[in-house]
Amino acid sequence: MKIVGFAGSNSKKSINKQFVKYTLEQLKDHEIHLLDLNDFEIPMFGVDREEEKGYPNKVKEFIEIIQSADGLVVSLAEHNGAYTAVFKNLMDWCSRYELKFFNKIPMLLLSTSPGGYGGGNSMELGLSRLPKFDANIVANFSLPKFNDNFNNENGIKDDELRANYEAKLQEFKKELI
Ligand SMILES: Cc1cc2nc3c(=O)[nH]c(=O)nc-3n(C[C@H](O)[C@H](O)[C@H](O)COP(=O)(O)O)c2cc1C
């Protein structure tokens, strides 16, 4: 099975990317691929740009990679109570090229932030909006206070949070069989 993961962030030090990377490492029985949205730099979506110049190749490339996956791990960063502009822009482009581009591929939806809600607003938005693109969110988990609760070697430090996360990971793994 091929699992593709990415963070909804273009930060070089993205904590969401670190969280996706850690999660993909827990799925090493499978073929894992970690994407970086910096490799999919595309212009700001606009209907005029779309009409005049069509779809950037990077949009098609991104959709092809997504649709080649058997499972998706996505972790949403939060800016001002919503997912980031870079993620929204990508979603806007992809949805215009092919509305249902997530193809019902099982998705583990994550979010994290340094705050106590762990990117929960972004998560709520993702849970309500991404299914419009046929995202099949089979499990979701938000990790609060990333800097206190996570390190790259041992993952989630807090026992209760770790148990919760592992249960969600199991739910996702079941969908991959
Ligand atoms: C413009 C901006 C707005 C932010 N707004 C929020 C917010 O609404 N909620 C939150 O939990 N964190 C917020 N943060 C902090 C981010 O969660 C933090 O920068 C985090 O590292 C972003 O995830 P990333 O490292 O994966 O990009 C904001 C950060 C920036 C730069």
Write up what this structure looks like.
This protein is of the alpha/beta class and 177 residues long. Strand 4 (78-79) and strand 5 (82-83) form a beta hairpin. The strands form three sheets. It has a five-stranded parallel beta sheet. Strands 4-5 form a two-stranded antiparallel ribbon. It has helices at residues 15-25, 47-53, 57-67, 85-97, 120-129, 146-149, 159-174, and strands at residues 2-8, 31-34, 71-76, 78-79, 82-83, 106-112, 136-143, 150-151, 155-156. The protein is built from seven helices and nine strands; from the N terminus they run E-H-E-H-H-E-E-E-H-E-H-E-H-E-E-H. Helix 3 (57-67) crosses helix 4. Helix content is 41%, strand content 23%. It is globular and about 55 Å long. It has one domain (2-174): Flavodoxin domain (Rossmann fold). Bound molecules: flavin mononucleotide (FMN). Flavin mononucleotide (FMN) is lined by residues 7, 9, 11, 14-16, 77-81, 113-115, 117, 119.
Distance between the termini: 9 Å
Q: Write the CATH fold name.
A: Rossmann fold
Query: What is the typical, i.e. mean, pLDDT?
Result: 97
CATH architectural arrangement:
3-Layer(aba) Sandwich
By secondary-structure content and strand pairing, the structural class works out as alpha/beta
Q: Biggest β-sheet: count, sense, barrel?
A: 5 strands, parallel
How big a fraction of the residues is strand?
Answer: 15-25%
CATH superfamily: Flavodoxin domain
By CATH reckoning, the class would read: Alpha Beta
The radius of gyration computed from the alpha-carbon positions, rounded to a whole number of angstroms, is: 16 Å
Strand order of the largest sheet: 2-1-3-6-7
Unreliable stretches: none
- Approximate shape: globular
Q: What's the number of structural domains?
A: 1
Query: What is the helical fraction, as a range of percent?
Result: 40-55%
- By DSSP (H or I, 4+ residues per run), the number of helices equals 7
Order of helices and strands: EHEHHEEEHEHEHEEH
